[in-house]
Design goal:
The chain is 36% helix and 20% strand. By secondary structure, it is of the alpha+beta class. The longest helix has 15 residues.
Length: 242
C-alpha cells in the first residue's frame, strides 16, 4: 500500500518473473502492467497488440561483469567489455576450464539476452558447444546464480541490484571488472520500461501509475532509492540526452 502527495492510496500485487515471463503474463492478461529489460521484445509486444504504446522508460539499471578476486584471466580495468569477454573465452578454452570458468543463467532472462549479445559481439557462441566444460549453465534466479558463481570462483554477468543484495561477507569475495555507466550507448546499460496490457483489467489505474512513476515525483523517489546504503538505479534519460 502506498500513498503520495496529491494521490490516493493504492495497492500493487506483483509476480516474481524474468522479463520474458513477465511479457507472457502481460499477453495472457494475468497482469495489468510489467517492468522489463528487453527493448526489442517490448517493441514486439506492442507491435503484436499485447501491450499498449508507449513503453514508458522508468529507470536505468546497470549490468556488471563480476568474478573472483584472484582474477585468473588477468583482466585489465582499462579494457573494453568486448576485450574482457574475449580474454575470458580464450583463457577458458586454453585451460579447458581449469583456470577460468563462466556461469550463465541460460534462462532467456534479460541478463541471459545481454550475455548472449556479448558473446556474439566477439564472434563466439560457447553455449552452442556441449564440449565447452568451462561454460556452467545454472538455471536459477539472479541472487542464487551470483552466489554460486562467487562460491565456485566463476565469472558471470549480473546487475547492480543483485550485487547489492548479497551479504557483505559474500560480496567481499567478488571483484567488479566492468559496470555500466548511464550513457545510452553503453553496452552494459540495462534500461527498464513499463508496459501496460492492451486489455488491462485496471487499465486506467495502470496508466496513472505509469505517468506518476515517470513524472517528477516518481523519478525523485527512484533517484533517492538505496540498497545497503548505496544508490541503486539512475532515473530515466531526459529528452535529448546521449
Amino acid at each position: 500500500m502506498t500513498q503520495t502527495q496529491n494521490h490516493s492510496a493504492f495497492q500493487i500485487a506483483y509476480y516474481k518473473a524474468s522479463s520474458p515471463h513477465a511479457l507472457n503474463l502481460l499477453k495472457t492478461k494475468a497482469i495489468d502492467l510489467s517492468i522489463t529489460y528487453t527493448p526489442v521484445a517490448e517493441s514486439l509486444a506492442i507491435a503484436e497488440g499485447s501491450a499498449n504504446s508507449p513503453a514508458y522508460y522508468v529507470f536505468r539499471d546497470h549490468f556488471m561483469l563480476v568474478g573472483p578476486k584472484q582474477d585468473p584471466a588477468e583482466i585489465q580495468a582499462s579494457e573494453t567489455i568486448e576485450t574482457m569477454i574475449a580474454k575470458l573465452y580464450d583463457e577458458a578454452e586454453r585451460s579447458d576450464g581449469q583456470r577460468v570458468r563462466w556461469l550463465s543463467r541460460f534462462d532467456g532472462s534479460a541478463t541471459c539476452v545481454k550475455e548472449t549479445e556479448l558473446w556474439l559481439s566477439i564472434g563466439r557462441m560457447p553455449f552452442c558447444h556441449p564440449q565447452a566444460a568451462w561454460f556452467h549453465k545454472y538455471h536459477t534466479f539472479p541472487v542464487a546464480a551470483l552466489t554460486a558463481a562467487l562460491v565456485l570462483g566463476e565469472y558471470t554477468l549480473t546487475d547492480r541490484g543483485t550485487y547489492l543484495t548479497l551479504p557483505p561477507a559474500l560480496r567481499s569475495q567478488a571483484r567488479v571488472f566492468k559496470e555500466a555507466s548511464d550513457g545510452l550507448d553503453d553496452r552494459l546499460l540495462n534500461p527498464a520500461h513499463l508496459l501496460i496490457a492492451r486489455e488491462a483489467e485496471n487499465g486506467e489505474m495502470a496508466r496513472r501509475f505509469a505517468e506518476w512513476v515517470t513524472g517528477r515525483e516518481g523519478q525523485m523517489l527512484i533517484r533517492g532509492f538505496e540498497k545497503g546504503g548505496e544508490k541503486l538505479y539512475s532515473v530515466a534519460p531526459e529528452t535529448g540526452e546521449v
